[in-house]
Amino acid sequence: MPSGGAVLSKDELRELVLSWQIKEAVRLAMEDSDVLLMLLDLVREDDVNTKVRALLALYEVLKGEDGETRLLVINEGFDAIISALKSKESRLVTKSLKVLSALVEGFPLRKEEFLKLVDILVELVKDPGIEFASIEMAELVTKLTVAQPSPAIRSKVAWLISSDNPRLKGMGLRLLLNIFVFTGDPKSFERLLEEASELLLSDDDILVDFVLDVLVEALQRGVPEDAMKVLPRVLSRVKRIVARSDDFFIRSKAKRLARMGEEALYNYYRSRPEEAKNTLHRLVLNGEYSTAMDLAISLGDEFLIKWLSKTLEKEGAEEFTPRFQVVDGPRGGPAGVVEFSPPAPSERQRRPAGITVEKFSDGESLPSLERVLEEGDAGALLDILRSRPDSVREIEGFLRSGDPGKRSNALWTLSRLVNRMNNGEFELLYPLIPTFFDVADSGNPWERNKGAKILAILASKGGRRDIIEKMLGLLPERPLPAPEFFSYYFIYTWDEDAVSRVLEFLKGALSNPELQFSALMVLDAITMWGIRPGIDWESFLPILEGLINSDDNEIRRVAKRVMERFKTA
After folding, report:
1. What is the pLDDT of residues 86-104, one digit of tens each?
2. 540/86 Cα distance (integer angstroms)
């Protein structure tokens, strides 16, 4: 920002600001650093109106300025802004918070300024008279970080997280995320999940909303292996918010976070079945039955659900024991297990317990389809499909919607629904098969995964051989959705004809970096059934030996497991 001598006096600048010619004051301050310094002087004046208007102008200046301007404001005006914030006058507090938010966005503070600002925010959070500025404080803390994390900074953040005041604890978690988690510290990530899990039980909607944002950002960075064991508890509590919150926006955030948590758990445990079983067992031993059930359903593994059911029954945890039904596999293949989890406590009054949900009587009105999909209520969706089979066309509209939120709501609910349906009910979804193929070919990995899984269940448990043949036909021309499909399909059933055709494809796919992991997961699913005679497994040994030396931890882990099966065959 150039300084060529002020183009006007401070009195003239004051007149511009007080006469609501703020745009002109902003333009001049952005063009000349001397005018900006005069604007900071106006923030120091005693007159409240002058200070408020000067802060308004300063906010507009900082919104579009670079690091040089921000540094000038910190060096020359930080104390003036802090003084206005400490005044506790409502207009000065809210305007100061907005200025500080613009100032620190993408611009880490030095240790001294950071600690000074945090101490003042602590006093404001503890003051019930400043409740009016809760949203502005949350916005500032979301952007707040420090240039050089020091022992003093770590100590301050740790003190906040240990506070008995839930909002101070939430503030500490956001700073932990901003300063330490983003550097890749797995211990900080684990503590973030543990402490956030407790705050999700709060009745304070502002705090819950704030913590959900923290968790969404944390999961977007990927959950470290050491922190994965804490995620099931967080997911279980997030699902309770989805089911019980009266706030639409909080429910929407919680649903997004639940999907992210389910995806993270599935991607982690799909290649670690024994670790998944050990985690479920540990949760049961700790009495965390609902968390164990939520984790098993999220993984979508019928074998784990059946094992968990027996374990819960032995523990006498009848209330949490999943109901399941054994159904015949296609073409005389192995039987499958369709899971029916007990309704959540909040649902028990409006939904009868048991394996199947009764139809609504003629006198009862069905809930709107959009609301059912927003809430992820698979049981209510099944009610609608039974009563109005033609509603499948409306569901198709959601799956093809240009709104990503509507698409993901529909997919998430349908992916839960197919695990609850029995053989005679799968035909309700048959008209959607072409749409599921389009979803399975999506450029969005989450949507592609859900579409492939739904198709795999319809093919294996619903006996739709045409789905398998179409997927086999896609292998040579558009291979992307097919490996994800077969990685599920071969878990649910053994299909020798499909196996032999897919194995030929895998030999090449395992050498393709874009397909390597998903192809390896298909081979993993096939070998779960044992090493069957008559199939040329030896041709895969050199490929697996190469994958065992991969730089990718996940590929190495799965390749080693498959190789062990070959050796013990």
Report:
1. 998 889 999 999 999 999 9
2. 69
Helices (runs of H) and strands (runs of E) counted in the chain: 29, 2
Q: Tens of pLDDT along 151-188?
A: 899 999 999 999 999 999 999 999 999 998 877 778 89
Rounded Cα gap, residues 317 and 327, in angstroms: 25
According to DSSP, the residues that pair with 327 across neighbouring strands are: 336
Q: Which of 27, 32, 39 is nearest to 5 (CA)?
A: 32
Tokens of 130: 């400043």
How far is Cα 14 from Cα 57, in angstroms, rounded to an integer?
A: 11
CB 343 within 8 A of CB 352: no
Question: Which H helix or E strand runs over 340?
Answer: strand 336-340
**Residue 414 gets which letter from DSSP?**
H
Show Cβ contacts of residue 542 under 8 Å, excluding neighbours closer than 6 positions: none
332 dihedral zone (left: phi>0; alpha: psi -120 to 50; beta) = left
List, in order, residues 6 or more apart from 551 with CB less than 8 Å away. Answer: none
- Tell me the β-bridge partners of 339: 324
Question: Where are the strands (E) in 183-335, listed by range?
Answer: 323-327
Closest by Cα among 271, 277, 282 to 230: 282
pTM (predicted TM-score): 0.63
For 487, 506, 543, the CA distances from 550, given in Å and listed in that order, are: 21, 17, 11
User: What letters, b where the CB count within 10 A reaches 16 and e where it falls short, cover 91-129?
Assistant: bbbbbbbbbbbbbbbebebeeebbbebbebbbebbeeee
Backbone angle region of 517, left / alpha / beta, with phi > 0 → left and psi within -120 to 50 → alpha = alpha
